[in-house]
Every structure is written in C-alpha cells, then in structure tokens.
Amino acid sequence: xxxxxxxxxxxxxxxxxxxxxxxxxxxxxxxxxxxxxxxxxxxxxxxxxxxxxxxxxxxxxxxxxxxxxxxxxxxxxxxxxxxxxxxxxxxxxxxxxxxxxxxxxxxxxxxxxxxxxxxxxxxxxxxxxxxxxxxxxxxxxxxxxxxxxxxxxxxxxxxxxxxxxxxxxxxxxxxxxxxxxxxxxxxxxxxxxxxxxxxxxxxxxxxxxxxxxxxxxxxxxxxxxxxxxxxxxxxxxxxxxxxxxxxxxxxxxxxxxxxxxxxxxxxxxxxxxxxxxxxxxxxxxxxxxxxxxxxxxxxxxxxxxxxxxxxxxxxxxxxxxxxxxxxxxxxxxxxxxxxxxxxxxxxxxxxxxxxxxxxxxxxxxxxxxxxxxxxxxxxxxxxxxxxxxxxxxxxxxxxxxxxxxxxxxxxxxxxxxxxxxxxxxxxxxxxxxxxxxxxxxxxxxxxxxxxxxxxxxxxxxxxxxxxxxxxxxxxxxxxxxxxxxxxxxxxxxxxxxxxxxxxxxxxxxxxxxxxxxxxxxxxxxxxxxxxxxxxxxxxxxxxxxxxxxxxxxxxxxxxxxxxxxxxxxxxxxxxxxxxxxxxxxxxxxxxxxxxxxxxxxxxxxxxxxxxxxxxxxxxxxxxxxxxxxxxxxxxxxxxxxxxxxxxxxxxxxxxxxxxxxxxxxxxxxxxxxxxxx
Length: 677
Description:
The chain is mainly alpha-helical and 677 residues long. It has helices at 10-27, 58-79, 85-108, 119-143, 148-169, 172-178, 180-210, 214-234, 240-268, 297-300, 311-349, 367-377, 382-424, 437-476, 480-486, 494-530, 534-538, 545-553, 557-661, and strands at 42-45, 52-55. A hairpin with a 6-residue loop joins strand 1 and strand 2.
C-alpha cells in the first residue's frame, strides 16, 4: 500500500526499493508467475493512455514498481534548481538512478506488459535521464572553470544522449503512444541538441583562442552562433526562464563572435577554415545508469520470507559447496606442491634463520657459566682449599713413602748380613731358633708397598687432574671480564658482515613468504566456510544458477591472485637464497669453527667446576687412606727395627758358637833357606 501511494521524496524511493526486493524474494518461493498455481491478477494504470492494465503475473507488479522508481528519481532530479554544487550532485545522482531503474526494467522484464514499457519508450527514458545527468556535470565543470576542451567534450556528450532520445521519439510506435506529447518532447529535445552543440563549439572556440588559432576561433564561434539561432527558433512556447537563458547565451556567443571576427579581419588575417575540415568534438560520457540490485539487504531490509527455503535451493547450495571445495582443492594442490619444494630446499641448505650467525651469543657469558661463576664468587677460598688439601695429601704421601723405604732398606741390610754370614760359615744353614719376626715384617711390607704403589698412581692422576682444572677454577672465580675474554669470538670482515646481512634478509623474505602464504590460505578457508548463498539461491531462477555460481566464485579471485603471486615469487626467492648461500659458505665454515671452540671452552670450564667437589672428595679420601697407612707403616717400622736387631744378635751368637767348635791352628816348622850358588 505504501508503494502504491508513495511520497515524492527520498523515502518514497526507499519504499519502492524495499517493496521491489520483497516481491523478488516472494516470487522465488511461491509460484506467482504467469500461468503458475498461485498467480493473482495485478492491475495498474498506464500513465500515458490512462487505461488500466491487468496481468496475472507477479513480475508485472515488479515491472510497474521499477517504472515508478525511475519516474520518481527523475522527478526528484528535476526538482532542484541546481544553483549550488551540492544541488548539482544530488540531481545528477537521481537522474543516474532513474536511468538504472529503466535499464533494469528494459533488460530483465517482458516488453509486452504495456506500451509504456516497450523497448523504444524505455530507451527514450534512459537517454533522457543520462542526458540530464550529463547536463549536471556540464554545469559543475563550467562552475569549476575546467579546461575549455573538456567542457566542450562534456557538452558534446549531452548532445549525443539527446540525439539518441530524439531517434526514439521519431519512432512511429512511440509517436502513436505519446500523441501530442511526442511533438512537444521532440521539439524540446531538438532545441537542447542545438543549444548544447552551441555550448560545445563555444568552448572549442575558446580552446582555439588559447592556442592562438584565430581562424579556427572565428569558425567555431560562428558555428556556435548558428546553432544557438536554431535553438532559439525551436524554443518558442518555452517558459520565460528558458528564453532568458537563451538571450544570455546569445549575448556571450554573439560578443565572442564579433570580437573574434574583428580581431582576425584587422589584426591576425588568418584564413578561416570550413567547419567540416576541423576535427569533430567527441563526447566524454561521465555518467552511467546506476544498477539496481533487488536482493541487496542494505536496500531491501530483512527477507520477510527467509525461513521458506525450497528443497531446490538446498540442492543448489550443495552444488555450490562442491564448487567451493573444488576451488580449495585446486589452490591447496598448488600450495602443497610449492611447500614441498620449499621444505626440501631449506632442509638441504640447513639454514636456520635464528642461528645463521650466532653472533649475539658471543656478546655475553652463557647462563650455565654465569651460574658457576656466581657459585664460586660466594666461595672465594675454593682454589686455596683445593691446593692445601692436595699439599696435605702430598705430605702424608711423602711420610708413608719414607717409612716404607726405611723398612725396605732395613730388610735389605738384614738380608745382606745374612748372606755374608752364610758365606763366612761355608753356607751352613742357620741353626734352629732364628727370630721369626722378619718374615712377617717382610710380608707386611710387601703388602703396604703394593698398596702404596697403587695409591701412588691414583695420587699422581689426582694431582694431574688438579693441575688441569686449577687454572679454570681460578678463571671462574675471577672477574667476569676475564671469563668473557677467555671465550673465543669470531672476527668478521666488513665483506663477511655484508654477506651475513644479505643472507639474513633473504631468509627473512622466505619466512615472510611462508607467513603470507599461510595467512592467505587461512583467509581462503575461512571465507569459504562462511560463504553461504542459500538466500541468494532462493531468489534465483534455476536457469541463472550457473551464472550466479560464477559471479559468487569471483569473490575469491583477489585472494587467488595474491596466492598466485606468492607462489610465483618462490622461484626468484630461492634463486637469490642459493646465490647468497654460496657466498656464505666460507663465512659459515669460520663461524662453525669458532662456535665449536666456544662450546668446547664453555664445556671445559663447566667440567672444571663440576670436578672441584670430586677432587676435594678424592683428596680427602687420599688423606684418610695415607693417614691410616702412615700409622701402619710407623708401627711396622718399629717392628722391623726390633726384628732386625734380634736377627743381628742371633747371627752374632751363631758366629761365636761356630768359632768355638773349630780346633786351634797348629804351629808350622820353619823352612830352611835356599842354598846359593
């Protein structure tokens, strides 16, 4: 009801558009078309003849609403006096909207509903609307003092639109429909054709004047004057405002022509060319029919019949889902192929962007080493304690070794004395009753010597280990600057640094390419997941489904283009990375060697710290062992001394006894001296 009695304002346009949209939603769900089950009679009055026209077709209702939408926009466009810039813009928009409504009506609905919806009448309306919209732009360009040539082209396009309208008016079918109106309209349109042709040539003359082509200037102004005179002839009966505009234009063009002709006759003397020898002015169409979209929710509002979804729409939605899935499969196949190549390439390169140079790690002491330094800083006597402990161990070791040596020397001396006695006595075995303690002392001494020998090896190893770690422990306990200075650092030339920077920049490009690819893939997946066109499918004819699918799938074109560009860039990026890696090879080798030394140094220092407790423990164990052994050796030494004394006394007794048993020596007779010759 609101659409039938629509107010003559912008709200009226909005009401018509909403009603048009809801009719579109309705006819897609309920069979109300011509010859269909739910068709009802639709009656409207034809505007020119006044006759009522009835069709049992919901599309006729839509067609009449569209016609009225175009007519209302044209009325609103003509209402404004267009004296302000804003008024010109609003009028221009209304005329373009009107042209859009008539164009949609002409292209999407039958022309047999009524004579005022014939192809000729609708084409007439469209060109009348576009002509008036172009007029608004012409006024705006003159107000803005645009270049003369541009103004001339805009005006020439106004002429072109009105010429098309005039051709439609001259059609016999149009003439019979419009009757007397046809003659008035034709006369007015022809007057506008001549008038705007005059304006176009006026500005072509101005351009010739700017270019100092004074002969051309004369002919253009003369042509403008001729066309204006024709317009004045056709303007008889037009309102006084039109007559006034024509008189003003005559003053301008007449003045321009007289001045130009006089200047050329008396000053420039340039030849005046024939008008047909000059290039014709080509129109510049700056307006267009603004399209009508019956299903635009921003215009139509919520779909009243949204919950009525036919089975055919569900089936079509399923087909569309398959189209989306196919699109995703195609794109993912390309992405996965490129990703596989990229992964294999990066694996072969063995380049990690995070650790490609490791230069930052050389700027500070690693946490594990800082921890050891901190631990030693609260124990400043660490090295001294270790040295003292080892010195104590060495002292006990020396004492034990001296005791065992003395025991061994005593036993060896005793054995030598025993050997000498036997030689003296002719190796007679010793008599029974010799002291038994020496054998036990010798046995125990051998055992202690064996223990000492083994412990001596351990002691030597312990001292070697201490000497190995002592310097490192002193370093760890000293100033941090010394620790940092002890760690190896790479020495890079400016060229090496440049090579590194270039490699890192390209690796960053690789990562950027990966991230962008993943982001685009996620955007595509989310977009496909949210893409539900069931509502549009409901309002679309089955014959238009394929076209709708193609239109809807175009929304993915931009993302696909971005992805294609990303994938295409991979080859160039990898080529650049290969070149950079070749230059990086020598730098990489040097950095790897320094890193190995750095890690080895850190591990050695950490190992020295961790060895400290073990050294202290073993040193204490060594002290305990040698203290015990020292006590035993001291006791054994006393026993050895006592046993050796007893053995010596026993040998003395034995020697004396043997001497008593032997008879005293007999005296020998003196020998006579030898006789001399």
